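Check out a protein:
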Amino acid sequence: MLWVGPSPGSRAGGGTLKTSELKKELAQGRIRPAYLLAGSEPLFRDECLAAIREAVLAGASEDFNLDRLTGDRLSAGILSDSLQTLPVMAERRLVVVSHLDSRGRATVREELAEALLKAVKSLENQQEAVMVVVVPKVDKRSRWVKAFKAPAALVDCEPPKKMPDLTRFIEGDAKRQGVSLGSGAAEHLAERIGPQLLVLQGELAKAALLAGEGNPVTREHIVISTCDVAERSIWDLTDAIGQGHAGSAVTQLGQMLASGSAPEAVLGALAAHFRRLARVRGGADIAGSPFIRRRMEGQARRYSQKALRTCLERIHETDAALKGVGSLPRDMAMENLVIDLSR
C-alpha cells in the first residue's frame, strides 16, 4: 500500500532523505507518492531510481506501467496524462522525469516548473502512480523543488565530501563486493582517489584482484594497484595547458569528466593550482616535496603575473557559469576555459 506518512527519524519531517534512508524506507515497504533525486553523483541517482522502480513495480510489466519522460519534449499535458493513466495488472505505475534542462543548469522553464508543482500536490491523495524526477542540480529556492516535502521527498544524491563519509562508502562497497579490507586501506584509497565513486568502485575491484581471492586488501595493494587519480590528472591537465596544447588539454579534461570527476571539482583544482602558481611567480615559497616545488616553479615560469591574473579571472567566470549564470552548457564552459588557459 502507498505510504504517505513521515519516516520516524528522518530529517525535515521526512521530506529530505539520504540515499540510505530512502533504501531503508523502501525495504520496509514505505513508498512515497513523489521523489526528487537531486545531486551530482550519478551512482547514487541510478541506485535510488533502481530501488524505487523495483519497489513500485514489484515485478509488474514495465511496458504498461513505466513511463520515461524527458524535459526537452515534456509538457504539462503530457505529464498530467501520464500520471492519470491507470496501472495495468499492477498496484501502481511509475513515471520517471529526467533531463529537465539539456543545458545542465539548475533552472527549469516556467511552464514545466508549474506542472511539476501541481503534479506533486495532486499525487498526495492517490495510490495509483508514483513520480520520480531525476536531476543533477536544482535550485532549492524554487517553488517546485520545495513541493517535494512530506509525503513526497527530496533525496540527496550528492557524493560524500568528508573523508570519514568517503571511507564509510568504501567500506560499504567492499562489503558489497565481498572484499576484506586491511587496516587503513579504505582511508588510503579515499585519499588517493577522492570523491569519485564510480572510479573508487573500479579501483577497489582492481586492488582485490591483486590481493587474491580470500586475502584482505592492504595499503600496499592500494599503492600498487591504483594511481593518485586526482593529483595525476590535474598535473596532466595543467601540463598540457601550460605547454599551450589546447587539444591535449581538452582531451585530458574529457577523460577526467568521463571518469566521474565533477566539473566543480576540476574547476576547484584548477583554481587552487593557478593560485599556487601565482604565489610561486611572485617569489613565495609553497609547501610540498622538492619534486612538487620544482614542478610548480617550472610551470610558473611559463606565465607572467598579468597572465596568471587573467587565468584566475577566467576561472572565476567559469565558476559563475557552472552555477547557472548564462546559458552555456557546463561541459562546454569547462572546455572553453581550458582552451583559453592554453593560449
Q: What stands out?
A: Residues 1-13 have pLDDT under 50 and may be disordered. The chain has three domains: 12-156, 163-225, 229-341.
